[in-house]
Design goal:
The protein has 397 residues and is α/β, with parallel strands linked by helices. It has two domains: 129 residues, Alpha-Beta Complex (Aspartate Aminotransferase, domain 1); 257 residues, Type I PLP-dependent aspartate aminotransferase-like (Major domain) (Aspartate Aminotransferase, domain 2, 3-Layer(aba) Sandwich). The chain has a seven-stranded mixed β-sheet, sandwiched between helices. β5, α7 and β6 form a beta-alpha-beta unit. The two termini are 29 Å apart. The structure holds pyridoxal-5'-phosphate.
Length: 397
């Protein structure tokens, strides 16, 4: 439905792009906004008294406001980063630096999580002796909520994916919240929204989310811009793991004083044009009817895809839930008779873009007893014809 807004499909009319979980295509509006900003408005932010710099600063702040609105948060609770991976590294390290997380404290992850939300914590386990525990999965790769319920009361931090980049499972936040409500103290709750943010809004305070991590390129902005939301009280307590220009109030030869929120967490010159692109991507979503329209379109397409995948031979198996509830249009397959890499190559020859491998989720694949899978993922520019072309090719492997 929204396909004509994306020039890549004019350049490549036969393209079947099923790799948006990796990175989304960009609408004309985002491409134009970046180009216009660079031609008419570009300057560094926060450091100039002149108009260009002030206008750039306003746009940068407007981008934060736009992100905050999608999370029912405040603009000064949004910190821009380069991507989700950087955000997890920054956050986890800053929690330790602030004494909010320390030796023998448990960080609870789930086996469905992306390496970006695993390895930074593992490094802290090596360096500081924090303990990592895992929420188990069912045999189909979906989250075992009983395992989550039994483990989270012992955790100092729960850091978990808000939507899986392999099974497409969307974390049931109502269920997590009702678990939290049974305790007087709950863990610091970090949600990996990398796959969630492109498809839906999330009210962070309603679900007691302390930190929400996102990455812009999956929501149609440029690469190199990501963010995290931090609950204000925690952001204030948090000593940034990295610091430097732009993130301090004053520096002497033997001391420095970190700046206020949120700049203390954004050292150095940020990706300003990236912020402009993220702002425009979110304005684009608003212009097509907001997340409600995105969700509506994707739900129908996901239901259609699941129906069609039901007609595939039994030698091709879909990982994760076969139902459209609590699910994104992210579908991963394993094959009895083929290696996923070979299938990806065959599909690439037919102009179909998918991904093969572990998708940065080794623990998930290990818990399923497989080494890799083939992933096809949908976004707003995909059509039923894309699904049909994929199914047709898979049937004829
Ligand atoms: C669930 C999830 N978390 C984190 C990331 C990391 O995102 P980035 O590479 O933009 O840092 C990804 C990217 O694929 C992801 O799917």
């Amino acid at each position: 439905m929204f396909r004509s807004d994306f020039p890549i499909f004019q350049t490549h009319p036969d393209l079947v792009f099923l790799d948006s979980a990796s990175s989304a295509q960009k609408p004309q509006q985002v491409i134009d906004a970046m180009s216009n900003y660079l031609s008419t408005n570009y300057s560094n932010i926060h450091r100039g008294a002149y108009d260009l710099s002030m206008e750039s600063s306003l746009l940068y702040e407007k981008a934060k406001k736009a992100v905050a609105e999608k999370l029912s948060a405040r603009a000064d609770e949004i910190v821009f980063t380069y991507n989700a991976t950087y955000a997890f590294n920054f956050l986890s390290r800053s929690l330790v630096k602030s004494g909010l997380l320390w030796r023998w404290d448990t960080v609870l992850l789930s086996k469905v999580d992306h390496h970006a939300n695993i390895v930074p914590w593992q490094i802290l386990a090596e360096e500081y002796g924090i303990i990592i525990d895992w929420v188990d999965l069912h045999d189909d790769g979906t989250i075992d909520y009983d395992s989550l319920a039994s483990k989270f009361p012992h955790a100092k931090v729960l850091s978990i994916t808000g939507a899986s980049n392999v099974t497409g499972e969307v974390l049931d936040l109502d269920r997590v919240k009702s678990m939290f409500d049974t305790l007087s103290t709950r863990p610091i709750f970090v949600l990996d929204g990398s796959q969630r943010f492109p498809h839906m809004a999330t009210d962070v305070s309603k679900y007691s989310i302390d930190f929400y991590v996102g990455t812009g390129h999956k929501v149609m902005s440029d690469t190199g811009i990501g963010f995290f939301y931090g609950r204000k009280e925690l952001l204030q307590k948090m000593n940034p793991a990295f610091c430097g220009g732009g993130a301090i109030n004053s520096v002497s030869t033997d001391w420095y004083e970190a700046a206020g929120l949120p700049f203390r967490h954004e050292p150095g010159t940020p990706h300003i044009v990236g912020a402009v692109s993220l702002l425009t991507a979110l304005e684009y979503i608003d212009s097509i009817g907001g997340y409600a329209a995105v969700e509506h379109y994707e739900r129908e397409l996901t239901e259609y895809a699941l129906e069609q995948f039901g007609t595939l031979p039994s030698t091709i198996r879909l990982i994760g839930s076969k139902k459209s509830e609590n699910r994104l249009g992210v579908f991963s397959f394993v094959f009895d008779n083929h290696h996923p890499n070979d299938v990806a190559e065959t599909l690439a020859d037919a102009g179909i873009c998918v991904r093969a491998g572990h998708h940065c989720t080794d623990p998930l694949h290990q818990s399923l007893g497989i080494r890799g899978s083939l992933r096809a993922s949908l976004y707003i520019y995909n059509t039923r014809e894309d699904v049909d072309t994929l199914v047709e090719k898979l049937k004829n492997l």
